[in-house]
Amino acid sequence: MNPPGHPNHEGSPVSTAPLARAALADSPVVITVAPNGAYKQAADHPAVPLTAAALAREARACLDAGAAMMHMHVRKPDGSHLLDAQAYRDALAAVRGAVGDELLVQVTSEAAGVYQAAEQIALVRELRPEAVSIGLREIAVPDIPEAELAAFLAWLAERRIMTQIILYDEGDVRRWQALRQRGLVPPGAWSVLFVLGRYSAGQTSSAYDLLPFLAAYDHSLPWAVCAFGPEENACVATAAAFGGHMRVGFENNLKLRDGSLAPGNAALVRQAAQGAQALGRPLATAADARQIYGAIG
Questions:
Q1: What's the confidence (pLDDT) of residue 13?
Q2: Which of the four CATH numbers 3.30.1330.60, 3.20.20.70, 2.60.120.200, 3.30.479.10 does domain 28-293 have?
Q3: 252 contacts 232 by C-beta, under 8 angstroms
Q4: I need a surface site. Which of 97, 199, 219, 284 has the fewest CB within 10 A?
């Protein structure tokens, strides 16, 4: 029998019925590290990884701290944001050399005010990554006809690329669910990321920011949370208590839960792992992450 939210063997349309909620002790939590993002520089923190070699070192340290997944950005030689298939291939190879397949690596298609939707889509099509994050607001835009958007989503689904859709508020949640309900999102390896506090004062998140997302969401797909500022750890721990997954790292936050500067991304991962374990949730391995985020829904 197929679980709710997954297609049957005949490929019938995906259901948006809520996923069955497993006991926390039976629900591994995926900790993703987002070690650099599009903007952080060495001036912000000397441990921000800006090269393929630095990403590989960070991958090893964060895996040892409890991460199962890395959300990867690549940079130009001057440190600025880059979307480039070969740069991604080089970074992916470096990380693979450091940790093998023990981390699931998710590349980003983020625009960062530099790239347009068509360029983002072209990058993903050229790279064909194992996993990718895509901002709904960045590709569901007037410049991309709906038929073209649907074709891209179908391409992702057909190739079973683990695709995490980034959502910034409950309006984004409803828009994504509407696309699914209209049949524009075929069954695929989909998940969502709730970004907490993106538009709050000072871009500082609170665990309360999760509540509108949960109220709007149909719980038909795996979900994770990222957050800005020193309450990042409280935010992801709250998500874990509700059965969600955790993303931490220098992309959004440089501080430990006590307000001090984190020495590296691994320290933020270690905090998240401690929070998950306090809730009784086992830490996912990369194999678990591939099963969770690779499930067809």
A1: 40
A2: 3.20.20.70
A3: yes
A4: 199
